[in-house]
Hints:
By secondary structure, the chain is of the alpha+beta class. It has helices at 3-21, 60-69, 83-96, 111-120, 145-155; strands spanning 35-41, 47-54, 57-58, 102-106, 135-139, 159-163, 168-172, 177-178. It has an 8-stranded mixed β-sheet.
Amino acid sequence: MQSSTRRRFLSLCAGVSCALAAPGVLARPTRAADRSLSLYNLHTGESLRATYFADGVYQASELTAINQLLRDHRNGQVHEIDRPLLELLHRLNVKLGSRQAFHVISGYRSAATNAMLHEQSDGVAQHSLHLDGKAIDIRLPDRDLRQVHRAARAMKAGGVGYYERSNFVHLDVGRVRYW
Length: 179
């Protein structure tokens, strides 16, 4: 081995040895915390506590159970619920420190259901994010509705609607906006 090549090789070995000896360098990343949601569907009476994210990965069976619980209760159609919406709900629950299940008024809505509700009310958007599994209407029994609304707005993570007379807060993962 030539002298300069040998020096480069030894220098590289020394650098790798130092890197391996240094605390935290090349260490395995820490696992992300498990994330769970408790949901209660007011229309079907079904409830669920699902750990939808564990050991650093989304749990397919738990996501399927959430999709089933948040289905269109009028016709039984199931749709995939957007993962960022689940993350938003989880962060909101942590922020509020609630120990109760989210009471769900509306999760996924089929096109037929959304059209029917849009005809009945000006408060239902024709192209609602409920159609894409990106919106949910909720309340928390152990938190004042205004508190849920303020906490959701403070997150600045999507749309937040306050429906005091109907006793729910709308959350979606669309653009940030409030009503």
